[in-house]
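## retry 2 of 3
previous attempt timed out at serialization; input unchanged, resubmitting
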Amino acid sequence: MDLGIRGKRALVCASSKGLGRGCAEALAAAGVDLVMNARGAEALEATAAEIRAAHGIAVETVAADIVSEEGRARVLSAAGDVDILVTNAGGPPPGIWHDWGREDFVAALDANMLTPIALMTALMPGMTERGWGRVVNITSQSVKAPIPQLGLSNAARTGLTGYVAGTARQVAPQGVIVNNLLPGIHATDRADALDGGVAKSEGIAIEEARARRAATIPARRYGTAAEFGQMCAFLCSQHAGFIVGQNILLDGGATNATL
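## retry succeeded, writing output
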């Protein structure tokens, strides 16, 4: 399918690896020029070089912490007038409700709610003026069904979801389409960290922890960054103009819900 976005320009956050990289690669395959951001310069440059070579599109890189004001300013300066924004940030650490204090919640809100909002606030005015834009926020399946050990993520990402629900409907008349992608467990560094935590706490091998988790998913496997990226690219396409303010699960059926 031709997504109709060849020649567009996208900012993809946290895109040196994992789900962000999957999104960047899928957009590049559709002919979209990229501004890629991540904190680690070495991994970012290596990924950018591979994407340039594979797809022949223009790729700019900005190694910066998107959560910090200084880092975000650098990224936005490089991004300029992008047509597509994909927000993404690593999730806060797992734990139990009594583990977290005010500063833990502030950090989670900064990364997983306030930073995506700041990026949208900065970039959507240009999109509305030009009459076209796409925003995809990578959130979590936890906004549909809370994950007890991920209370910080549950709280911060649900706040972002509420913000998007109202905002998406305000900018849709100007051709700017905003949606959220809700990943379940995917084969990424985040999954390795979570499985490693379970393995350590229960005294089992990480392979056993991974197998146990996979057995709870109807698809009986973890998702891949590539298939996640393809859904992101579709939501950024010309074909997604009637999908407004939605929360789309990619979790292999793990969230047991009718709606």
